[in-house]
Amino acid sequence: MSRQLIENPVHDETVPESAVQNGSCVRNGNLKTPREKRKVREQCENVRRNSSSSRRVSQLQNGEVVEAVTLFEVVSMGKQAMQSVVDDWVEAYKQDRNVALLDLINFFIQCSGCQGMVTAEMFQSLQKKDVMQKMTETFDEDNEDYPLIRTGPYWKKFKANFCEFIAVLVQQCQCSILYDSYLMDTIISLLTGLADSMVRAFRHTSTLAAMKLLTAVVSVHLNLDVNKHNAQRLYEVEKKRISGKRTNYRLDQLERKRKEYEHKLLEIQNMMNAIFKGTFLNRYRDVIPEIRATCIEEICSWIKTYPDAFLNDSYLKYIGWMLYDKQAEVRLKCLVGLQGIYSRKELVSRMDLFTSRFKDRIVSMPLDKDHEVAVQAMKLLMLMSQNCEDVLSAEDCETLYQFVYTTHRPLAVAAGEFLYKRLLSHEGDEEIQPKGGGKFGASTDQLKRLIRFFLESELHKHVAYLIDSLWDWAGKFLKDWECMTALLLKNTEEDGEELSDAHESALIEIILATVREAAEGHPPVGRGAAKKILSVKEKKIQSEDCTKITEHFIMVLPQLLAKYSTDAQKVANLLQIPQYYDLDVYSMGHLEKHLDALLREVKDIVMKHSDISVLEASSRTYYVLCSEEMAIYSQVDCARTQLVDEMMGQLNQLLDGFWQKEEGFCTDAGEVSRMHSALRRVAAFHNAHDLTKWNLYDKTLKLLVFEMEHGSLPVLMILPALQCTYFSLLWQLAAVSENPSKETLFALGRELRRFSQICMCFLHHKEKDVREKAFMILCDWLLILSHQDLNNNEEAVGLLDYLPSTSLQEKLLLFIQEHVFLEEEEESKDLTEEEETKDESCKLDDLHKKRSLLAAYCKLIVYNVVEMTTAAEIYKHYVKSYNDFGDIIKETLSRTRHNNKIQSAKTLILCLQQLFQRHAESQDSSSGVDFSSASFTNMKELARRFSLTFGWDQVKSRESVAMIHKEGIEFAFQGATGVDGKCLPPNLSFLLIISEFSNKLLKPDKRLVYTYLQRYIAEPLPCRGDEWQPLIWYRSSLLANEDEESSVLGSSGEWTPVGTSKMPSFKRKLSNVALVTWDLRAPFEDLVRFLAF
C-alpha cells in the first residue's frame, strides 16, 4: 500500500546514509549507486516540473514506494530543523557537487515562483546567460505573485525560513566547502545573474538571498579575523619563548595556521566584494522599493556587525542617500538601521562626517508624511542628542519640542521623551535643593521648567496634548499634585521668587490636564481614534490615581477656589476637577465638612460671576455631586436648592422691576447687565438641572413674545432668554416622554409650535447673534422632535410630530445661503500688527460660527428632517468653499449616500443641472455654450470632485453612478425638437459635465449607458458641426476602453476587434459580454430594469 509523503523525511534503518540527498528520502532497497539515485531524482523532478506548488510526490514502482521532497518544499514547510536540512545537503554536495548544486539552483529558481526547472543537461552545457534566458521564458509574466510578496502567516514564515537556510548554509560550510572555489563562485554567479533579470521575482528573491549571503559571510569574516589575531598573538608568544632555538614544531604549526587564516580571509574578502559590487551597487537603487529596503537593511546590519570594515563613509553614504527615497519603507529602514549605530557610543565618534552631512535631513524627517517614519526619526534624534555632543542646535531642539502638540500620538510620545530628557529632566546633575530644605525641590524645578516651556510655546489651548505626550516619561512628577498645589497656595516660594499670574494660570491648566489624564486613562480628544481598552494593571493604577486625586483635592480645592474666586479663567479650570472624584471617599472618610466648604465656595463663585465657562463648570460640579445613589446626595441637593432659590429670587426681582416700567424697556446699562447675569446663571443651571418647578418657562417666554412684538430688548437679555426657554421645553419633553398623557401632550404640542414660530421670527432679527442663536436652536429642536421615541405611543408621536413645512425648509436654506456662503466685501485698510492679529482672530471666530451653522443644517439633511434635494444648494459650494467647509459637505454627501444611494445621486445631478441652467441663462443664446468660460470650467471641476467621492469600489457605487448618467442624458436631450433626434438639443453640452463620471462606470454599465444614449440619437449621427462635439466626447468616454479590451479578447479568439464608431460592431461586443461579466449578471439585470424605468 502506498504511503503518504511526510514533511520531515524519517530515515529508515534499511536506508543507507548516502541515500538521503537534498532533503529527499528515497525508500528503495534496490538503489545502491549514485547513478540510480540520480535517475530517480530526475524522474521526480520531471513529474514536478509543471507544478511549482506541489508539495508531495508519491509513486509506486515495482511494488515499492518512492517518496521525494524538494529542497524548496522542505525549507518552505519549515517542519524540519534547518541544521538538519543543511547537513543533508552538505553531505550530498560532498558526494556529488554537481547534483547538489543543481538542487540548490532549482531551490532559488522555485523560491522566485518560477515554474521552470534547471536540468542537469542545461546546467552542464549552457552558459549562465542562456540558463537565465530559459528560466525567464518559462516564467509566467502575467502572474505578478511570487512567494516573497505573498501574504499570510505561511509565506511570512517561508521568508524567515529562506533567510535562515542561507545563514545556516554558510555557517555549516565555513570550515570545509566554503573555500573550494566552486560552491560560492557558482552561487554568487547565479544570484548576480538573477539580480540583473528584468523579471521582478528573480531580482527580488536573488537580491534578498545575496544580501543574506553577504551578511552570513561578514559573520564568517569577523570570526576569521578574531581567530587570525589570536593565532598571531600565540605565534608571537611562542616565538619569544623559544628564542635561541633553531626550529620548533609548535611555531611552524602556528605559522601555518596564521597563513591559512590569511588565505581564508582573502577569499572571504573577495566573496564580499563580488556580492557587494555585483548585487548591492546595482540593486540599492532598484525601481522596486522592497529591493531597495532589503539592501539598506542589510548594509546597516553589516555596519553594526563588523564596524571595523564597514563603518566608514564609503558605506554610510548609501544610507544617507536613501534617506531621501520616495518610498516610506526605504526611509524607515534607514532610520531603524541608524538607530542601531547611534545607540552605541563607541561607534558615534566615527560618524562625524555622516552626521554633519545628513543631520539637517534627519531633523526634517519628523515632518514626514508617513507616521512611522516620523516616529523613528524622532527616536533617532533622541539617540543622537544623547550620544553626540552639541550635534543639535538650540533652533533644532526648539523645532523638535513642538512635536509634543501633534495629533499623532506615537510621534508626540517620542517628542515627549525628547523634551523630557533634554529640557525637564537633568539626570546625573546634582539636585539643587531650595533654601530651607523643602521636600519638593526636584519636582518644583521640573514644574517651573515645564511651565516656562508651555508659556513660551504660545499654544496655551493645547496643554492636554502636552501632558499626554509627557505622560509615559514624566508620570511621576506630573502626578505630584501635592507639590503643584503647594506652589499655588503659598504667596511666595521659599526661595523668595513669586509665581506670576501667567505662571499660576499655566500651572492650574497643567493640574487639570494631569488630573484628567490620570482619571480617564486615555489620550485627549483628537489624539487617537478611540478610547483604548485598559488592562487589569492599568485599571488598578487608574483607580489608585482617582483615589489619590480625591483624597488630596477634597481638602485643597476649597482653599484654591477661595484664593482665586475672582479670577474667572482659574476658577473655571479648578471647578472641573470634582468630576474626576471618587465620591465614596466623602462618606467613607467622614469628610462631609470639606464637602460643605466646597459647596459654599461654589455658591459664592456662581453669585459673583457671569462668565459662561465659570457658570457651566459650576453647574457641572453640582450635577456630578448630585448623584442619587451616593450618600452625599441629600446634602448636595439641599445646597443646590438653596442656590437656585437665590438665583430665581434675584431674577424675579429684576423681572418685576422691568415689567413695572411704563414703556417696558430698561435703558439703564447696569440693570441690563444684572438681568443678563441672572438669566445666564439660570440658563447654565437649567442645562443640567430640571428647574421646571420654579416656573421659569413662562417668565422667559414673556420676554421673547415682548421682543417679537416690540423689538426693543437688548441682545444681552434675548440670548439667555432664548436659551432658558429652549431648556425648559426640553425638560418638559423629557417628562412627557416618560409618562405621556393626552392633556399634557396637547399643551406641550401647542407650546412647541409657539416656540418654533418665535424662532422663525427671530431668523430675521436685526441682531446677527440673535439670528444665529435662533437658527441653531431651531435646527436642534427639529432634530430632537423628528426622532422622539415616546415609548412606542403612536398617539403621543402624532401629537408631537413636528416636521418642517416647505416654507420653513426654504427659510432655513435661505438662511444658510445668506449667512454662511455669502461673501462679505472686505475693505482695504491700513492696520497695525496688533490690529491685524485682532482682525484675524475675529475672522477665525466668524468662520467657526459659520461652520457650526452649516453643520447644524447638514444634520437635518442627513437625518431626513428636511428634503435631501435641499443639499443641492450646499453641494454647489463644495469646490469654491472647500478650505472652509469642504469636510462638512463631504461628510454630508457620504452620509446621504449611505442612507439612499439613488436619491443622493439625484441630488448631485440636480446640483449640476441647476448650475448648468444658470450658466446657460447667462450666455448669449445665439452663440451657444462657451466651453472655455470660467463658470463652465468650474462646473466640470465640481463634477470631477463629485466623481472622486465615489472612491475606487465601482461595484459599491454602480447604481449611483448609473443613475447620474441616466438623469444626465435625459436632461441633455430635454427640449429637443423632433422625434428622430436630429435637431440640436439645447442642453447637449451637459454631456461634457457627466462625462466626468464615466470612469466610475463598470464596463457592462458603460455598454448599458451607451444603449440608453442611443434611444435619443438617430443613425447615422448628425455630427456635422462643432455643436455636436459634446455628444462625440461623451460617447468616447463611454467607449474609452473598448479598443483595448477588444484587442485582448480578439487575440485569444474570444472577441474580434471592433471599431468604436459603428453601432453594429458595438452590438457584437454586447453579445459577448457574458464571457467576462458572468459574475455580475444578476445585479446587472437589475440595473437594466431600473434604468429602463
From TrEMBL:
* Gene Ontology MF: a single term: chromatin binding
Q: Where is the SCD domain?
A: 280-365
The main location is nucleus
Q: Where in the cell is it found?
A: Nucleus; Chromosome; Chromosome, Centromere
Q: Where is the composition biased (Basic and acidic residues)?
A: 39-48
Q: SUPFAM superfamilies attached here?
A: ARM repeat (SSF48371)
Known InterPro entries for this protein? Answer: ARM-type_fold, Cohesin_Scc3/SA, HEAT_SCC3-SA, SCD, STAG
Bias kind Polar residues: ranges: 19-31
What does the entry list under GO cellular component?
Answer: chromatin; chromosome, centromeric region; cohesin complex; nucleus
Region called Disordered, residue ranges: 1-59
Coiled-coil region(s) at which residues?
244-274
Q: Which GO terms describe its biological process?
A: cell division; chromosome segregation; sister chromatid cohesion
In which residue ranges is the amino acid composition biased (Low complexity)?
A: 49-58
Which keywords belong to this entry? Cell cycle, Cell division, Chromosome, Chromosome partition, Coiled coil, Nucleus
User: According to its UniProt record, which protein family does this protein belong to?
Assistant: Belongs to the SCC3 family.
Complex and partners: Part of the cohesin complex which is composed of a heterodimer between a SMC1 protein (SMC1A or SMC1B) and SMC3, which are attached via their hinge domain, and RAD21 which link them at their heads, and one STAG protein.
Q: What does this protein do?
A: Component of cohesin complex, a complex required for the cohesion of sister chromatids after DNA replication. The cohesin complex apparently forms a large proteinaceous ring within which sister chromatids can be trapped. At anaphase, the complex is cleaved and dissociates from chromatin, allowing sister chromatids to segregate.
Annotated protein name in UniProt: Cohesin subunit SA
State the organism named in the record: Limosa lapponica baueri
